[in-house]
Amino acid sequence: MTQLSERPLTVPNLVRRPGDDELVRAPLVAARRPGQWFGVIVVLVLLAMLGHTLIVNERFQWGVVADYFTDDSILRGLGLTIWLTIAVLAVGYALGIVLAAMRLSHNKLLSSIAFAYVWLFRSVPPLVQLLFWYELASLYPQLSIGVPFGPEFASFDTARLFGGVFAAFVALSLDIAAFAAEIVRGGLLSVDRGQTEAAQSMGLGRLRIFGRIVLPQAMPSIIPASGNMLIGLLKATSIVSVIAVQDLLYSAELIYQQNYLIIPLLLVATLWYIILTTLLSIGQHYVERHYARGRRGGRGRTPLRRTFRNNLPLLGSAWSRINANGAKS
């Protein structure tokens, strides 16, 4: 087999021309994007129009909004909304983790039961589930605890047990559990199987493998979807107003049914929802950043900085130019 002869690499002589030094020292200039500037101008004009109509249009009645913003009835409804969101998320997610474990189980019966549960509750709208549990007394007037096909130990009046709040809690918890199961299952499947096999070869137990190896790697995939589900759940609690549960929205409805100030009271509820979802979004950002440490080589940007740098490219470009001019001076 013949060997290739080694030849020295030759570099052609570079021809220096007049003006090359100026080109080398010239600063880098970003490409001009007239479409981007036009888009920024259009957005600013629309924002100015929106701000103008919010201030000038007296029908918004911001004075009434301020008067009812911290009304006792509104705050009680807000408290019920927050409690219902936290309680449903805790119970629904606990049940969802169990369902995810059943879906990943090698037992065909458990896997089939979990699949059927997820399929059923993801197919039925939450409002239908809510009305079903609220009207359960028409199907089962009494619920009993005892031996199957044998004596009863205790019985309950279904109409009293499944009041508005409890029916909302049960319906939303069962609905959230189906979606949480898929979120957790998807996060666990995102972890390479080799991680578990390597830990098993070192003699680690299943619980330790799950808690120390699998779950920390699955959390970056679970947290974003869970945060979105939490925000969706907060807004979905407003459907309980159809069964006269006095949450934030229904409290506003009770007030404007008396004074007919519909728009101001709806604005009160809207502002509270915006405040709560904003706080949850900020919390979600920091939780995501905590579990994503080491993945992108940095702690990441804060929500405010990310908003200005990513969503306002004009401001980001201007900031870069200011820094470049400062470095030159």
From TrEMBL:
Molecular function in Gene Ontology: transmembrane transporter activity
Transmembrane feature ranges: 37-57, 77-102, 114-134, 161-184, 229-249, 261-283
Membrane topology (UniProt): Multi-pass membrane protein
Cellular compartments annotated: Cell membrane
ABC transmembrane type-1 domain sequence ranges: 78-284
InterPro entries to which the protein is assigned, alphabetical: AA_ABC_transptr_permease_3TM (IPR010065), ArtM/GltK/GlnP/TcyL/YhdX-like (IPR043429), MetI-like (IPR000515), MetI-like_sf (IPR035906)
GO cellular component, one term: ATP-binding cassette (ABC) transporter complex
Pfam family, one: BPD_transp_1
Main location: membrane
GO biological process, one term: amino acid transport
Keywords: Amino-acid transport, Cell membrane, Membrane, Transmembrane, Transmembrane helix, Transport
Record family assignment: Belongs to the binding-protein-dependent transport system permease family.
Protein name from the UniProt record: ABC transmembrane type-1 domain-containing protein
Protein source organism: Gordonia sp. MP11Mi
